[in-house]
Amino acid sequence: MSEAPVLLVTGGSRGIGAAVSKLAARQGWRVAVNYASNKAAADAVVDAISADGGEALAVRADVGNADDIVSMFETVDRHFGRLDGLVNNAGIVDVAQRVDEMSVDRIERMMRVNVTGSILCAAEAVRRMSRKHGGSGGAIVNISSMAVIIGSPSQYVDYAASKAAIDTFTIGLAREIATEGVRVNAIRPGIIDTDIHASGGLADRARDMAPNIPMQRPGTAEEVADAVLYLLSPAASYVTGSILNVSGGR
Fold first, then answer.
1. What residues are labeled active site?
2. For 53-71, how does the pLDDT look when each residue is reduced to its tens digit (9 = 90+)?
3. CATH classification number, 6-246, choose in 3.30.360.10, 3.40.50.720, 3.50.4.10, 2.40.50.100
4. Can you give 143-183 as a three-state secondary structure string?
5. How much is the pLDDT for 197?
């Protein structure tokens, strides 16, 4: 069995997750590419990694479902036999709305996927990587958002709140397991040119927001991936509980 490290990327079939999966494979990781429903997109990422000489596996799971999360980690166990890193990337937005227009169902779904799902995935990863549980250590990178700072008024206040929870969770978990060989950090992307904006009904948001960004352009998924892979790497061995803005100065 290969001794190459294994990385699980939730929401790994598109956007930032796909860029992280491909870059990780190029840097020597074996990659579990999680997807919720778009198998074709996940398979395309796996095929691209394989064509480049890497090893990857597509794993279906809805991180808004606790049973799916357990099943996903068990699949990684069976296929790779180890886990060395987790990127908590899976997340959702919704159509632009004021808070007083939001339904209970919308808010509960947002928190279930973006917050509860990330916490449960991290817990499963800790059970496998922590030295307290017999693991060899590892790293977790949570994907937050600059919406935490800005608040996203009249657009996604619920999304911003969910990502604020991720920031706090990152700091708390990092300190909780700091002596167990597992580092926990987060990335706060700014306006990144991916299709997540279309899922919120604002397909041109990245282009339209460019004048409000100090660098006058949206970022790319690959630029976020570079930051994620740094935090996963031995080069960040003394970095835990940190939140890195990748936002063009916004």
1. 159
2. 999 999 999 999 999 999 9
3. 3.40.50.720
4. ECCCHHHHCCCCCCHHHHHHHHHHHHHHHHHHHHCHHHCEE
5. 46
